[in-house]
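question for whoever is on the cluster today: can someone run the full assembly for these? two chains, 416 residues total. i dont have access anymore since they changed the login thing
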Amino acid sequence: MGLADSIKKVCHKLGTNNKPTYVVMAIATVKGIARPTFTMMDKTENPETKKYTALREGLTEVIAIPAYWACGELSAKAAKKLFENKNAKEVINPALKKAQTNFMFVGVCTAALFVIPAVCSIVIKPIMDKLGLKTPEKKKQMQQKLDAISQVAPQPVVKPEVKPANNNYYVNTYMARPQMGLRVGGL
Amino acid sequence: MIGIVRNLASNSTLANLAQNTSASVSIETTLKSIGRPGFILIDKDIDPDTKQYAAAKEFLYQATCLAIYLAAIVPIFKHGGFKLAKEKLFKNTNGFEHFKDVNHYLHYRKLAENSVANRQATLQKELADKTKVSELYDKTLLDELKKETPEKFADVKGAIEFSNLIGSVLGLAIIAPQLSHAFIHPALKFLGLENKDKKEINQAKQTVDKMIKEHHKLEEKQKNIDIKA
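^ ran it for u. tokens below:
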């Protein structure tokens, strides 16, 4: 079977039943490859930030793909349950197909709006911490502050040494034993 | 009650939108452009300046993606994909021979999806204008439209959806994010939301000023101690 035949088959399948999950999953897959690649290709950013951002983007899409699929399919199953009626199967079937599509679409929208951001906020941070990657924003903020301080301050500020109030001048002159001359018995 | 829920759940208009790639992607992007900034603004753990900045950035990103998608990607891929499928892939067979372009097919499909009564009423109106009918429907299509369930030409629909899918993937995953980045930063600067660096430098300057003042105070104290000694 050639490429043309495969495309024809895909066209027929999409023409018969174009599930709302197909397009979002396809977009998420390509985003998962393209976005980290573009980030890593950026020459203006420092390597650690690039690594962090690329991994975060990749992980987001890795979470998004199963989330879209699961939300879509679960919603379609919910529609099936709503329309389940063994006595009047023939009457309800056309409506069931439409309801399944509608529920799947609502499920995909829910995944995009709520499920994916929620799962990402729970899952990504621990993974990044485990990999030893810190948020580049925090690092950047710290660096900016340090840069600003080094630009503004002419000299490093050194806390002046405060002498003891009782002026004990004998502290550094005390000797336990003579340091010069003959010492007997290795003492 | 269940009957009402069932009727709402099996709504034909929504089902048609959900089966249409470009429409469903547009609806999702619109929801994201409203919902995501909304959630950022609701979050109480983020400071107000950051919230405003992040929400505006997210909104502008989604809005520019949607605008680019609707203005350029959809028309190019929808029309281009149909033409390519008609001429190269299916070579004017599998239903493509009845339609001139995408809009022609979509007009027929819309009519075919109507209930028989609605379809006949529309057809009667169109039949009054004979030139329009002869332009729109050949004999096969007219015969199909008279049937209870007309042929919807799945291959034609599939070719349109497939080209839309490729367009959506290329547009939303590769082209639109790159173009939107070029637009977002000037827009955020115009809105006065991208001066965070200056704010941070000012804060750092204030910290340094405080440190220098403390240093001077300590020096004065030291002098006083020396004088007393």
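summary bc i know u wont read the tokens: Chain B touches chain A through 63 residues (CB under 8 Å). Chain B has three domains: 1-99+153-194, 102-152, 196-229.
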